[in-house]
Design a protein that fits this description.
The chain is an alpha+beta fold. The protein is built from five helices and 13 strands.
Length: 256
């Protein structure tokens, strides 16, 4: 998760912050927690999980995908401590038996039928917990694919997308062994080859990406400014940062 934090920090633009936060947590939970056979009994849908009296709960987005797999996510604010809420949830669904403890946060997970359930519980003060309840289909075939403009050698770190009011918003992060300046050159060529154009003057914007990559290679925080690209009705903003001798690339996109 260090890469995700570094790629996102310092960026003045914060579109769909809940989307990224939930996606990062789900990716972490799926990587850290073991997959076990589901327990029998208990509630069979997230909607039937009861939260303490006075809790607020809201479904996130019309549709949501994690690494191309369909998911449903509910965010909540509950008047109960994370440990007490974890017991409340596990009592209703015994399959939530995998527990991972992080600073200020508990993550429960387990398989319920054909879904992997994840409960993220974050301490928000005295007897208060905020977090999310998520269900990811484990039998659905992932629909995610690497975009044609992405240079080879990418390692996927996060891939989250939501459909809201007819617009698909995606937030993806990849890691490369290449330094930012070299990756910026490859990106610029690949984006133009696949029909993407930088918004504004192409020559000035292309030079801006290279200059930003050089700055990133020196470790300057201004590398977080990002650059806008457009193709027909699609829009995308890219960020490059140096990470562990290589690069981190974040793409935040909008498509009707």
């Amino acid at each position: 998760m260090n890469l995700v934090r570094k790629v996102c920090e310092g960026q003045g633009m914060r579109i769909c912050p809940a989307l990224l936060a939930v996606g990062i947590g789900l990716c972490g939970a799926l990587m850290l927690l073991p997959e076990r056979a589901g327990a029998s009994g208990g509630v069979s849908s997230l909607e039937r999980l009861r939260l303490p009296e006075g809790a607020l709960r809201e479904r996130m987005a019309d549709r949501l995908w994690l690494h191309g797999m369909p998911a449903q996510v509910w965010v909540f604010d509950a008047p109960q401590s994370p440990s007490a809420l974890a017991r409340t949830l596990a009592t209703q669904q015994p399959a939530l038996a995998d527990l991972h403890v992080l600073p200020g946060q508990l993550i429960l997970s387990g398989r319920v039928g054909d879904e992997r359930w994840v409960a993220q519980l974050e301490n928000a003060g005295a007897d208060r917990t905020v977090g999310s309840l998520s269900a990811i289909s484990v039998r659905a075939a992932p629909s995610a694919h690497l975009p044609g403009w992405l240079p080879k050698g990418a390692r996927v770190r996060t891939d989250v997308a939501v459909m809201e009011s007819g617009v698909k918003v995606s937030d993806r992060i990849w890691q490369y062994a290449l330094p930012p300046q070299k990756l910026a050159e490859l990106l610029d060529a690949a984006l133009r080859r696949t029909g993407w154009m930088p918004q504004g003057d192409p020559d000035r914007e292309g030079a801006a990406m290279a200059a930003s990559a050089v700055t990133a290679g020196r470790g300057a925080s201004s590398a977080g400014a990002g650059q806008w690209w457009a193709r027909e009705r699609e829009r995308m903003k890219l960020w490059l940062v140096p990470v562990e001798g290589g690069s981190g690339l974040r793409a935040l996109g909008w498509a009707p």
